[in-house]
Amino acid sequence: MPRNVIFCAVLIGVAMWAPIFCVPPMEPLIKEHLLLTHTQTSLLLSAPILMLVVTAIPAGLVSDRVGIKKTIGIGLIIMASGAVLRSTATDFVSLLAYTLIFGFGFGWIFPNLSKLASIYVGKDRVNVAMGVVNSGFPIGTGLGLAITVPVILPIAETYQGVFLIWSIPTIIAAVSWWILFRQPNLKPSRIEQRSTSITSFRGSFSNKHLWLVAVLMFIQQFTSFNWSGWSPVMMMLKGASLNQAGLIASMTIWPVLPTFLLVPRLSHRIGLRKPFLWLPSIVLAIAFWVAKYITINMECTPLELD
User: Which of 14-23, 54-63, 273-282 has the highest mean pLDDT?
Assistant: First the structure.
């Protein structure tokens, strides 16, 4: 894959996920400033994913017709607009509305970013290429959790300022994409593979393997978002300070990066995929079970939740 494509893909991944996961470390601040419930603050985290559910299939269909550059480029412009607008929000309604705009762009990009792998590499290597393309996801998530409060908040001073700073990667990603990315000319055989029709669309919905993968992804993402979204608060309940909570929570994200790069290659070499689905699931279940027994001895007052 061309280096400029890898650069754009990783940058887009960071720009997508960091603005989402800057919310959990600031949850106590946003909740106190806007007088929100935990349900409302959770909605600010999950709103982009809800928009992904709405926009994923239409975004894929549009990409098949107008091309991946225009589709992702438009999504980046919408996402950057929502990210900037979040910095102007003064109440829950406006903040949620701007987050939904961000989420619309997020959902427009997400299903099409992985297509970069299939465009540039053959079918036998697409899983390895997808690991490279998607490596920006854990980087953005980890940075959003780790540096939002201890690094960015002292500079920004307010949660609006934090949102403004985290909108900068989305703007850079949008500009870089439109300038650097050149959509290749696909061979006729590969164009035919991407043709869409009502028949093929219905056939996708009747594919039991597709539904199995969708269910597995739902379960994995459900647990992942619950952990990443609430672990900063859990760390504060166990005695960590506001500055420390997000950093501690991010420690579960950083090991994801090497697995994104190495596990697809290993899977390709041994020719198996299922062990890399059920074995990590067992490990995750054990980790979630023992998490409640974590103790943190910090010289600060544990967070009290109403």
Answer: 14-23
Q: Are 276 and 267 in contact (CB under 8 A)?
A: yes
Q: For residue 168, what are the CA distances in angstroms to 7, 45, 80, 153, 192?
A: 16, 19, 8, 15, 38
Any domain includes 229 = yes
Domain count, the chain: 1
Count other C-beta atoms under 10 Å from residue 189's C-beta: 7
Query: Is residue 203 in a domain?
Result: no
Q: For residues 35 and 119, give the distance between their C-alpha atoms in angstroms, rounded to a whole number.
A: 47
pLDDT of residue 199: 54
pLDDT mean over 251-274:
78
Query: pLDDT tens, 149-189?
Result: 999 999 998 999 999 999 999 999 999 999 998 877 655 44
CATH of the domain at 121: 1.20.1250.20
Q: How many helices (H) and strands (E) does the chain have?
A: 16, 0
Distance in angstroms (rounded) separating the CA atoms of residues 71 and 61: 10
